[in-house]
TrEMBL record:
Name of the protein: Ribosomal acidic phosphoprotein P2
Entries under InterPro entries matching the protein: P1/P2_N_sf, Ribosomal_P2
Region described as Disordered: spans on this chain: 81-113
GO cellular component: cytosolic large ribosomal subunit
Pfam families xref list: Ribosomal_60s
Length: 113
């Protein structure tokens, strides 16, 4: 993540296509020990791409990851609730209702809004 952040800082600083030296300079300026293989990997994956497009793609991936993990997190909770509270149907209803309120997934990570 720090390599990506350094790359983005270079782009925001005016370098449209940062080199590994640019990214390495940013990292060493804040005391990070640089792994040049990781820097090259970031440069190779991001070179020639627009930063706005990279961020938009990442936003879509985060939204889909948030929705799928919300569903996975809710299902085990429902199973445990059913076993423990067979005599208390009101609590089971509350768990189901609270999970449906986050169905859009946007309330958890408003990262880029």
């Amino acid at each position: 993540m720090k390599y990506l952040a350094a790359y983005i800082l270079c782009v925001l600083g005016g370098k449209e296509n940062p080199t590994k030296d640019d990214v390495s300079r940013v990292l060493t300026s804040v005391g990070v020990q640089v792994e040049f293989e990781r820097v090259e990997e970031v440069i190779n994956k991001l070179s020639g791409k627009q930063l706005s497009q990279i961020i938009a793609d990442g936003k879509l991936k985060m939204a889909s990851a948030t929705k799928s993990s919300t569903v996975e997190a809710v299902q085990p909770t429902l199973l445990v609730s059913e076993k423990k509270t067979e005599t208390e149907p009101n609590k089971k209803k509350q768990v189901i209702e609270s999970s449906s309120s986050d169905s859009d997934g946007e309330s958890m990570f408003p990262l880029f809004d």
